[in-house]
Design a protein that fits this description.
Layout lengths: L7 H19 L1 H7 L4 H16 L7 H5 L3 H25 L4 H8 L2 H13 L5 H24 L1 H27 L5 H23 L8 H25 L5 H5 L1 H17 L5 H19 L6
Helix pairs in contact: 1-11, 1-13, 2-11, 2-13, 3-5, 3-10, 3-11, 5-9, 5-10, 6-9, 6-13, 6-14, 7-9, 8-9, 8-14
Length: 297
């Protein structure tokens, strides 16, 4: 691995790319709220269009694709289906609750990954990590209680966001194993395609139309593929080679902050003091967990 400690310019470049990634993923909720299509269709085309943009580079990795074992394909399928479920659940939550509540609840992902790692790999947590888990859970309860007082739909949106966080945690646990065995490109391309295909089957069952969308909708699908997916999620996977994994995972703390500000500016959503307080609980709890985590998850 490249020794970047002796290259200040490289460090500055990686920090810049890291900030670009945080800003990019923060736009995801805005694009979803602007779209009028069914959330399953939005998620499907977001991923298929990402695959289309990556297609010119597939030939370079053809031999690696051909060497994948049946076990690896099964894990890729699990990771892909869970990623598809994550997008479906989280995007649905944005139609029911505020961007602030939905995105801040997604920051529970590292905590859920920790619990999954303990169950699957017997990865242990220290006392400070458990404190972080408890504080974040208190914040989640506060958000749920506050949204329940507003409307049942808002509470349902919170639940969907938390289920989306659980789905992406399973996706990350499967990916943790697979990324040790294959390149980032092969993993991402296969998972994006399998996730999109699982969503396509879901749309067929529901009878959602695949065509007939306006140019504006196709533009939003493409923006979702380019901005939060390629310049966000894929960029973070690439940075894992050059930055500490704990530092990269800190990106989950930046998304709700920037997303909430963007929602306030572009969607005219208000931020209540209650939401801010509960959000701070969650963000501090997740920060505490990541800061004192000894195992990269």
């Amino acid at each position: 691995m490249t020794d970047i400690t002796s290259k200040p310019r490289s460090i500055a470049l990686y920090d810049l790319l890291y900030m670009i990634g945080i800003i990019a993923i923060s736009f995801s909720s805005i694009f979803v709220r602007w779209s009028e299509a069914d959330v399953a269709v939005i998620a499907m085309y977001r991923l298929y269009l990402t695959n289309l943009l990556m297609l010119p580079f597939v030939w370079k990795y053809r031999h690696e694709f051909m060497r994948l074992s049946a076990r690896q394909w099964r894990l890729l399928a699990l990771s892909g289906v869970m990623l598809g479920a994550h997008f479906l659940l989280w995007m649905a939550s944005l139609r029911l609750t505020t961007v602030a509540s939905s995105t801040v609840l997604l920051t529970l992902e590292p905590l859920l990954v920790m619990l999954g790692s303990y169950w699957l790999f017997r990865t242990k947590a220290n006392r400070m990590m458990l404190w972080g888990l408890g504080i974040a859970l208190v914040g989640s309860i506060l958000i749920g209680a506050g949204d329940f007082s507003l409307s049942g739909d808002a509470l349902l949106g919170d639940v969907l966001s938390m289920l989306g966080a659980a789905a992406v945690a399973v996706h990350m646990l499967a990916g943790k194993q697979l990324r040790n065995e294959m390149s980032a490109f092969v993993y991402n391309f296969a998972v994006f395609f399998l996730a999109a295909t699982s969503l396509a089957m879901y749309n067929i069952v529901l009878g959602n139309p695949f065509t007939g969308y306006s140019e504006r909708e196709w533009g939003l699908f493409l923006l979702l593929a380019i901005v939060p997916t390629l310049f966000g999620h894929y960029l973070f996977n690439w940075l894992l080679k050059y930055m500490n994994a704990a530092a990269v995972s800190m990106a989950v703390l930046g998304e709700p902050v920037i997303s909430s500000l963007l929602a306030w500016w572009l969607l005219h959503e208000s931020l209540s003091g209650y939401q801010l307080a509960a959000g701070c609980f969650i963000l501090f709890g997740v920060w505490l967990f990541i800061r004192h985590g000894k195992e990269k998850v």
